[in-house]
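Try this one yourself first.
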């Protein structure tokens, strides 16, 4: 009878799951900006074991140095365009360069990372029965014709432009997520992330907040790309990480916008950085790059209602936190 049957023997691969209640979490791209903050937050929970897979294209071991050697932490040099065999319960799939300079550097590789990389992580999720979260982007809305953007908007994206490797790559990644969900029953979560800023951003990665802060600290002109009336909405990284964890833990597949609805023109951003960091610095108008979206602001009703999430850090409070980190890395202390 059933009572006398021995308990099922645990699979040797997943045995730790049978004997412990630990959650094993894979973070691809975990050595990057958002990923490393996510690692910090997940490692705070003693029930989590965290595995990072990263090829260090735009990330660095330095971002994870406080965890290297920790018994619940593992770092693997791995490119997600290659298959990956690990046994995990959750996958946060972030691997992909996020800054235009880096994703345009080798556009074919960017597409491979988005398409083959996401396919591999979905194959992994299917094999081990893990839940997988994709960090998609507001760029799926392209140069939006509706403003602000909610998740039902299908976007206005140039399929053959210099940004397409990223925008269209993420759009295919979203499609793959939904097809694995419908066809194979994989548990998926999709976050559409809007511009995020904070400590550990690459200093010279060309993104606007990191550029302006580094320029203000170095006493160089703040380079506003013409016309300067284009807008973005900036989310502080701790809020972003909180949103991603809630989405992973919740019951909704998404896509869900995660971002801060506070909208600023690039001229306003430059003026704010100047006022907060270096009132002496000049603001210079420079040439823009092709296909630059003119406006971007998330509607976050879904995140509020389905995840109970909304951002808490205002731009004026987040910028000084980032300034501290940049001053340390640039070796330029605050003037007394
Ligand atoms: P990041 O460039 O700092 O981090 C990306 C990480 O992925 C890096 O550590 C990089 O080395 C790694 N990586 C890149 N290609 C890889 C590959 N083929 N194999 C393995 N690792 C690879 O960028 P981030 O700002 O932390 O962005 C993280 C995720 O969030 C990305 O998927 C990005 O598209 C998305 N996102 C970010 C923003 C933002 O404003 N930062 C906005 C929208 C979406
Ligand atoms: N894959 C992986 N790790 C796994 C399982 C699969 O990287 O643990 C990769 C696999 O190499 C394949 C992709 O995920 O390229 C899709 O896998 P799936 O099983 O869905 O498709 P198939 O292998 O049948 O093409
Ligand atoms: N931008 C700018 N000065 C810079 C870098 C960027 O004015 O030194 C502008 C850019 O034209 C765009 C906005 O800032 O309108 C955001 O650019 P970023 O590359 O940070 O992010 P994304 O375009 O991906 O939102």
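Now uncover the answer:
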């Amino acid at each position: 009878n059933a009572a006398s049957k021995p308990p099922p023997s645990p699979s040797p691969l997943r045995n730790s799951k049978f004997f412990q209640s630990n959650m094993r979490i894979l973070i691809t791209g975990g050595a990057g900006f958002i990923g490393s903050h996510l690692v910090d937050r997940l490692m705070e929970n003693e029930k989590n074991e965290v595995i990072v897979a990263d090829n260090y294209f735009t990330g660095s071991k330095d971002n994870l140095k406080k965890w290297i050697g920790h018994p619940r932490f593992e770092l693997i040099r791995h490119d997600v365009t290659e298959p990956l065999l690990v046994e995990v319960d959750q996958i946060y799939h972030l691997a992909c360069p996020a800054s235009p300079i880096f994703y345009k550097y080798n556009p074919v590789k960017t597409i491979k990372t988005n398409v083959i990389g996401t396919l591999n992580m979905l194959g992994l999720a299917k094999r081990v029965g893990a839940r997988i979260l994709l960090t998609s982007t507001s760029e799926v809305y392209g140069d939006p014709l509706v403003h602000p953007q909610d998740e039902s908007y299908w976007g206005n994206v140039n399929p053959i432009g210099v940004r397409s490797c990223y925008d269209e790559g993420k759009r295919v990644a979203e499609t793959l997520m939904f097809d694995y969900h419908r066809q194979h029953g994989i548990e998926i979560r999709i976050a559409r992330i809007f511009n995020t800023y904070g400590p550990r951003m690459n200093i010279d990665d060309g993104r606007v907040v990191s550029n302006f802060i580094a320029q203000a600290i170095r006493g160089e002109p703040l380079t506003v790309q013409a016309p300067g009336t284009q807008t973005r909405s900036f989310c502080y990284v701790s809020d972003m990480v909180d949103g991603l964890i809630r989405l992973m833990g919740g019951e909704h597949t998404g896509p869900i916008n995660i971002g801060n609805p506070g909208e600023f023109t690039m001229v306003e951003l430059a003026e704010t950085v100047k006022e907060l960091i270096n009132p002496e610095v000049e603001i210079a108008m420079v040439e823009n790059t092709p296909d630059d979206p003119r406006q971007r602001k998330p509607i976050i009703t879904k995140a509020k209602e389905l995840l109970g999430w909304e951002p808490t850090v205002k731009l004026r409070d987040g910028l000084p936190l980032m300034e501290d980190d940049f001053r340390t890395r640039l070796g330029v202390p605050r003037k007394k």
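Discussion: Residues 14 and 87 are 6 Å apart (CA to CA). Confidence is low (pLDDT under 50) at residues 7-13, 15-19.
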